[in-house]
Design brief:
The chain is an alpha+beta fold and 327 residues long. It has 9 helices and 18 strands. α6 links the parallel β17 and β18. The mean pLDDT is 90.
Length: 327
């Protein structure tokens, strides 16, 4: 899940402390938690009901459900590190409406989300001097789809670390498959389609997908083979324009989690897939080991599934070591 204590934000802090400037001042879609961001990320505040999370399939992108702006409402993102610029990501089409932005409560500037070609677009705005800032997006007219925003210091080279964590997501969500269908959707906003050279969402590298436990739990009951095939689809779709470091999921022992044997079978398939594609693999499952033991050390929450801030810090250090090893 996205959140200020997650490993991407901690990764940015660790790299910056080591002399490699990085920032993770962003949010993308709902993270699977709807408008209830304030419970885990106090940088984000919603006002009014006009910018909401629709339910159901077909309106998801990287990080969860896109925010639908249809009436009076706003979302404000306040940075915790100094920034000078902000990229606003939205899905534009010939039927899209308009929104406006404000910096630090100043005057509102309207921009149109209407585009002749349906795709993910980026609007870059200036925040002013290098300092912490609050960026507010408001509904103005029509029907618009907000994907997220990324704030950063444009005065110096740095690594943009985007957090696309999506609480509860499965490999089927990420490969555009819904309601049991095996056919991938073709809409430009969908996760498998929007990471492309023709889209504004084109990172130079991806660390992931860290998926599987939600697929194979007792609610979804997908097989390791199904999960592995979807991971291969994802990585292959990224390969033409993006480098990938494959990250496995950590162990889980929640009441609806897949069995240890199933998790280990999936892990073996991860190793085989990374080997066949010739990409690095970070084995979080192997490093974390026994989940109940990690819980006693404060690495896991007592839901037996999600890591604590300390657990995310371990993942961040694993990523740092991997990046330095292959740099």
């Amino acid at each position: 899940m996205q959140g200020y204590n997650g490993w991407p934000v901690q990764l940015a802090a660790i790299l910056t402390a080591a002399g490699i400037k990085a920032q993770c001042e962003n949010f993308f879609c709902t993270g699977g938690a709807g408008g209830n961001y304030s419970t885990y990320d106090d940088r984000i505040v919603f006002s009014g009901s006009g910018i909401s999370q629709p339910s159901g399939s077909g309106v998801v992108s990287v990080g969860g459900w896109m925010f639908n702006a249809t009436a009076a409402g706003s979302v404000t993102f306040t940075t915790k590190t100094a920034c000078t610029s902000c990229d606003i990501f939205y899905f534009g089409s010939s039927s899209s409406g308009s929104m406006s932005y404000q910096v630090d409560g100043g005057g509102a500037t309207t921009f149109s989300c209407n585009q002749a070609t349906s795709n993910v677009y980026k609007l870059t705005i200036s925040l002013g001097s290098l300092a912490t800032h609050a960026v507010t997006l408001n509904w103005v007219s029509g029907n618009s789809w907000l994907i997220g925003m990324d704030c950063y210091d444009a005065t110096t080279p740095l690594l943009h670390i985007w957090n696309w964590g999506w609480h509860g997501s499965t490999t089927a969500h990420w490969t555009n498959q819904y309601a049991g269908s095996t056919a991938s959707g073709t809409s430009a906003w969908l996760p498998l389609n929007c990471v492309s050279a023709s889209s504004a969402l084109q990172p130079s590298g991806i660390i992931g997908p860290a998926l599987g436990v939600n697929d194979m739990n007792t609610s979804n009951n997908f097989t390791p083979a199904f999960v592995n095939a979807n991971k291969q689809m994802l990585i292959n779709s990224w390969a033409s324009t993006t480098d990938t470091i494959m990250l496995t999921e950590g162990p889980a022992t929640a009441s609806n989690s897949p069995s240890v044997a199933t998790q280990q079978q999936s892990l073996a398939m991860d190793y085989a897939l990374a080997g066949s594609l010739g990409i690095p693999l970070l084995d979080e499952y192997g490093w974390m080991g026994d989940e109940p033991t990690m819980e006693t050390f404060g690495i896991y929450n007592n839901d037996h599934l999600h890591k604590t801030k300390a657990g995310h810090n371990i993942t961040a250090h694993m990523v740092v070591d991997a990046l330095l090893a292959i740099a």
